[in-house]
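Table S4 entry, Dipeptidyl aminopeptidase/acylaminoacyl peptidase.
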Amino acid sequence: MRPADLALLRTPGVPAVSPDGRIAVVAVERPDPGSDGYRAQLWAVPTDGSAPARPLTSGARDCAPAFSPDGRWLAHLSARPGEPAQLHLLPTAGGAPRSLTDLPLGAGVPVWSPDSRRLAFTARLPGPGAGTPRLLTRLPLRPDEGPPRRVFVVALPGDPDDDAVPLPAPREVTDGGGDDADVAWSPDGGTLAFVSARHARAGRDLVRDVYLVPAAGGEPRRVTRGRGECRLPAFGPDGRTLYATARPDLGPAGLDLGTGGPTLCRVPVAGGALEPLLAEPRADETPTTVLAGGAALLGVARRGAVELLRVPLDGGPAETLVEGPFTVRGVAAAGGVVVATVAHDRSAGELVALTPGRRRLLTGFGRALGATGRLHRAAGLETPPGGRVTVPGGPGPHPVLLVLPGGGWCLREDVQVLVSAGYAVVQGDPDDVPAATALLDAAVTGRPLDAGRVGVLATGEAAGTALRLLAGPGRVAAAVVERPPAGSLPDDLDAVRTPLLVVAAEDDRDWPPGEGPRLFAALQRRGVPSELLLLPGDRPGDRAARLEHLLRWWDRWLPAGQGAEQAPAGASPATGTGPEGSRAP
């Protein structure tokens, strides 16, 4: 893969399935070189594989599709260039979409009521203007997080097909007393569940509770009773139980994330403590908890992959629906059909339909990129679990780049570009220097790799492991550290003499933007060969520039030589996206 190939990248989101199970709809994002931005449109495909996917909308940024329970409507978000996303309604029988909202800061993901006559969503309302006194009753998680989200409900007009019928205005259901998110309807349509931080320590801990509020508005009632972090509530079929993705206990201070991630839990609607139903953390990106056929459908992290599980609500054993070297990004179910967005090391994602005894690959969004012949297949490592290595063509021995964290079994543009340039890339998630060393040793054993020519590329929290690795015995020739967070610099930073490229994003909201420049300044003061790359954001041009600088840096300190731009063994336009009969799920 080359930096210019980013223009061919197609990334599908979380699917929606029609109530009869016949049609799946998904938003597909692609870079737009003309605007140096992104476009996204909705695509529809029959779940029986009888026809190829076809574009359904042509907006600048269309996403978050949701079928109404009666199948007549498809709600979605759409944004014009430079404007926030608004809620739109598209008739499934054909016709133009109609905007349902015109909120100054845009609308959130739409959620249908059981009667198909109302939509719930969250949205922010503008706060006081600049220079106006503001009273804060809690500390914001980020200074720039904006005003709190509120729950809204908007009713469909009497005749949604008639553009002349005035649209009802969205109605506020909550008052902004907390940052409200993740709305769900009760089976009778009379109550909304959502998550919020409305307790006394809100803003000083990570606790988020599940609340209930009448759909017509009223005083919210807290359901969860503990110190948990809740997300994505969903009512069970009988309306007496709520299921959520949660960390059940964050400790006395509400700040202890522990070693595990959020998992599937349940709690009585009447109130109580969260009860975990699964030991493994949830790892998919679906913006709800999907319940279908008496079970929950969710992705869990296993051995570097994200596998799809069916977890019976009655406590029976979980069933694995998609396993192996894949990353399940999202899932939806209706009409006896489960549709998942599944990525692997040579595709950013494809839709797969699952019915009893059969699975079908529905899309080929990665076909154009695969047709270049420049995508390379990774091989799993038995030790440590979840590790993998991607080796370029040619006899070798190839220089080795250790990428931390590994990022799972999915297409990574930087990995593919570096392998095409002649580097063997090792990916994994070691939590300390001995584990990182073991990962490298497992990768180079029995392969045409040069164990004496090693580089490290680390992002985020993994920066600490990388810097400690550099401070040890001189095995690493050069390194790249991206977005190092506060507290990641080891005590023995003075021992680091390895050439180091520091990458930071000027508008990064996840990590303090000053940490990268501070690391660069410390290296410069000691005369360590170092550079600082400041990226304005995450536009296609910024991503391409990052790849070009990575190639330049490694060519300077760890030149590849043989193996550059070799086609991966066995690759062809026909197999580049993993169709039926290959490694596709």
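The two ends are 24 Å apart (CA to CA).
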